[in-house]
Amino acid sequence: MHQRTWLSLITLPVVTTFTYPVLVRPTDPPKVEAKSTLQDPLAGLSDIQDVLALVRDNYVDAPDMGRVISGGIQGTLERVHPLNAYISPEELRLPDPGSADPGLTLRKSQIYAQVIAVASNGPAAKAGVQVGDVVRKLDGQSIGIMSAWTLERRLRGAEGSELSLLWYDSSVGSAKKITLKRENPTRLAIAIRKDLRATVLALPDLGAGRVLELRSILASLDGKLPLILDLRRCAGGDLVESAKIAGLFLGKAPYLTLQEAGKADRILETSGEKGSVFAKVAVLTGFGTVGPAEALAAALKKQVFPSFGERTAGMGVERTRFLLRQGGAVELVNKRWLGAGGEKLDRQGLVPEFILRSPRFERGVATQEDLLPRILEQLDKKLEPKPEPKAHLKAGLQEPWLRSLRLEPQGRTIV
Question: What are the phi and psi torsion angles at 340 (to 5°)?
């Protein structure tokens, strides 16, 4: 017999063993088992338990498993929203730190915190801290391990107590360590700047009583001159109060949409009667426009009041504390605000119609040119709002090569 024939007979069983399963496939296992495993919401708990066991048994030092678990919970919450926080049972039992603060509002962003509000004439403002600056440490402790709740708590303390910050000064491009003394916050009046060409009103907040104060001021002003509402350093206040302020300029009108988990959307309207008549009204916003001030700016923009400045902070949210059976608690963002024009005020903020870069401030004094002349220049042009795109243009935005147009800010840069 030929050698090739012998070789074929010898290798036939091997070839058959490997090719038969390919040609004749066995019946697939029932898909129900795989489907049920994927749908099981607790399927990943065994992996988590395995990871915790490996950390406990194999880490070079004995780990604090309580901190490992709480850190994992906090990290999960922050991935949903940076303002979510886990509060341990021990933290819940801590006494109130005090009402004094350095005149500073921070928002955590992963391993650092960004300054979103600085109180005028407060300790932070006198030290040169400005909106948009970055803080990396508080009292020598890294921001990264703090929750939003812990961060807000660490800023407060007794009158005269000190707080050290590792702060990145964007004006010089380097980090500095400064020490601030906490002070009890004082209520600031609305700042009035009267110019021959316009009147500028700077609102520090939208707390209770602001609508009465503003109504009195508006009644004393010359309605023939343009009015500029400066909200660049307007942080804090009450949503209801801000709706009353909007009513002074808009009368009865839609104000914002409140979205709450598990409930239908609610549309809030302005309250009160229209009490101001001015030839022109404009709004000036910035990153220090926080919370209710963002809702106010969005409502005025919706009613074709020209808006200037920079994007707002995106803090149109509300949090609720939920107690846990184990003794701790979580604070979750369960409500968010949509501006009158549909703006998502919980993260994206409001983009003004005309982009104007805010001047730098050094110890409360502007170091760049005044923005008022450029605002008045645009108001004198009597620019009409952009018309809505036609139907065929809206459809064209769905094309891949035009998708990027939807990502561009709505504002028009004039600086």
Answer: -60, -25
* Predicted structure pTM score: 0.76
How confident is the model at residue 300, as a pLDDT?
A: 94
User: By mean pLDDT, which of 25-34, 144-153, 309-318 is the weakest?
Assistant: 25-34
Residue 338 confidence class, pLDDT cut points 50, 70, 90: very high
How far CA 406 is from CA of 61, 88, 306, 364, in Å, comes to 51, 43, 21, 37
CATH architecture of 104-181: Roll (2.30)
Neighbouring C-beta atoms of residue 339, cutoff 10 Å: 25
3-class SS of residue 193: strand
What is residue 409's predicted lDDT score, i.e. its pLDDT? 43
CA 164, CA 158: separation in Å to the nearest integer?
Answer: 14
User: How far, rounded to the nearest angstrom, does the alpha carbon of residue 194 sit from its chain's CA centroid?
Assistant: 33
Distance CA 57, CA 51 (A): 10
Residues 6+ apart with CB under 8 A from 357: 310, 415
Q: Is the dihedral of CA 203, 286, 255, 208 positive or negative?
A: negative
CA distance 374 to 302: 22
Residue 223 has pLDDT above 50, yes or no: yes
- CATH code of 191-384, in short, is 3.90.226.10
Q: How far is CA 13 from CA 18, 20, 73, 90, in A?
A: 9, 10, 57, 70
Instruction: Indicate the helix (H) or strand (E) that contains 202.
Output: strand 199-202
Phi and psi angles of residue 381, each rounded to the nearest 5 degrees, phi first: -75, -15
Is 356 within 8 Å of 283 (Cβ atoms)? no
Q: How far is CA 71 from CA 47, 153, 193, in A?
A: 17, 18, 49
Q: How far apart are CA 383 and CA 306, in angstroms?
A: 9
Phi, psi of 269 (to 5 degrees): -115, 160
Domain ranges, ordered by start, for the chain: 49-92, 104-181, 191-384
